[in-house]
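To whoever is covering the structure queue this week,

Two jobs came back overnight. Logging them here so there's a record in the thread.

Job A:
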Amino acid sequence: MSSLTQDIVHFINQFDQYPVDPEAYRLAKIGIMDSMACMFAGSEEPVVQILARHFGQRAGNGQTDVAVPFLKQKHLPLEQAACLWATAAHALDYDDVAMSAHPSTVLMPVVMTGGIHLSASGQAVLNAYILGYEVWAELFTREKDPYHIKGWHPTTIFGTVAGAAAYAYLSRLPQELIANALGIAASMASGLVANFGTMTKPLHAGRAASMAIEAVELARAGITACPDIFEHRAGFLKATSLAGNVDTQTPATLGQTWRLVQQGLNIKQYPVCYSGHRVIDGTLAIINKENFNLEEITSIVATIGQPQASMLRNPCPETGLEAKFSLEFDIACALLVRKVGLAELSDDFVKRADLQSLYPKIRIAITDELDPADTAFALHDRVVIELKDGRVFDSGNIRYPIGHANLPLDAETLKAKFMDCLQIWQNHTGIAGKAQPLFKALSGLEQQDNIRVTLDVIFA
């Protein structure tokens, strides 16, 4: 009987022989396009600029270096470029969500920078993304407890390993070296919830992408690692498990069903922690329908799960970064300006007195009923607002936020988000005319023979 690690190695090595569901390709393109848009929008964030300056001191100019298009085609070594791409993609917390994490914010930079480095086709890039997602899902779904409760950031924990799987495929790592790459990546995986609301959180994604690529290159260079890293009693899954309640023995089902199709991607409407999105939807639905004065409010009760509460840890935020992880901010912002967008995440807006005056009226209630499909979330969230005259407005149980895979955004809304994000970058940089050509090229990614040439033409 084969082991879990061997099953994953076989899947990577033989991926081209699997009949991939066409819907997986459509969703992979959405993930790549949405996260690239978020990358451009986030490229002016301080964490990205600091990282760019840090890497710029060691910037290369050789043919093997990778362009960073949002930095006027500055070229960096592959691992640094991947780190910068991923950090920018996650800097605004506007990127997609699945499996209690942000898969595209790691997978997109790995497969795109790796694809540029290798002059790969768009089809190969899509294959690598799908493979990475499937390996991520195979590992993540074996744990019954929420990783966030233990303090792990799943984006980095799983992104490092799944990214390594994706790049091992894309770079055609020999089969006998793939287990080493996965073992190296597993030892590199890290990321702590304590750093949510700081610059280190988006850096988690950056480090996951860079370490994924580095793990593959180290294996290629001859570094060895544990050959059964996923099922070993002291291996990846057991070590990261909250209570050891993780399945390391059941054979993998990779390639039998496509989890990207089954689970999909949840595209964000709001640039804040996904744990608050259902509450934002409920709050907006109430205020837009009932249209009452905020001075009339006596209490607001939002019911969420404990794992969500562990992430939404800033009851009185003072900065835009802190506000991204504050349910109190989410509710107050939705009530005050009837939207939660990038403009509302400025430090000046977060410090507004009329916004902060609503915080004492907000109480967070915890439900123990978790979503069996994703235990980082309650089965339902709910918002109840009571006014001085006794009127009570109840959102009712909210199962999915708008943009969830089961409540997806339409193509027009997805394109609008893409264009809005690119416009933010163009406004900051003074560069114009890139959004539409990039959208067109990515929409037909499978038709691109060489993505390095494609992007060089657009950003020349």
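Job B:
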Amino acid sequence: MHYLLLCAVIFLPETPAFPVQPRPESLSSIDLEKTKQYLDKFFPVFTKTQNLSIEERIKEMQKFFHLNVTGKLDKETEKLLTLPRCGMPDAAEYQTFSGNQKWAKTPLSIYSEIIPECCLRSTLLTKAQEKNNSALSETCSRLNYQIQDLNLKHGDGSAFDGKSGTLAHAFPPGEGLGGDAHFDEDEKWSDIDQDINLFLVAAHEFGHSLGLDHSNVTGALMYPIYSYQNPETFKLPADDRRGIQKLYGKFMMKF
């Protein structure tokens, strides 16, 4: 019996005295390219940040979205890269576009180019406009949007990427493309909580059309990541209210 026990001990595989520390996470070439593309699109490098490493840029993104700041592509951060979102770059808290771009003239006219295959889309877009109008004075009874439903490359330098990913984008007030809102034709748009709710996305994009940039406040209309909430009970969050008031003044607001 003692002999058998001794043999069992002798032939046990070698094990270290202390547990092996896991290797630090590193990005594969595929992950690195995917992450870099996301950062370049939504957290572009400016003069003050052009020398940041990929880890430092990941940290900036993690700070914006209130994630654990590790500089690594952990599961939480990796999931973020796959979530449906707006195609415009990100900022912090309520922001307005550089120079506080806004429409100087009211009332504003409305012009729409809406894909005719589904009447639901027209209804939802009208509803979204009415929701935004309720936040402005009666003198600003209509908002100036050119709404287009487009796929992939469509002439504005910001191609869509197919289903999920980038849902839509819009341009701040100005000439040419100013105020235009573009929606990805490949998305499965809906008026219910399944798939992508057109009202919520349209309301977000119209915020850009009015001059609002992205916010890092979770739950704000201008938060870049899509999440569903009931359009019937939707109210403009305080963060977005402050942003629109900065551009158009408190005296213009009705709630």
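Note for Job B: The chain has a mean pLDDT of 72.

Please reply-all if you pick these up so we don't duplicate work.
Q.
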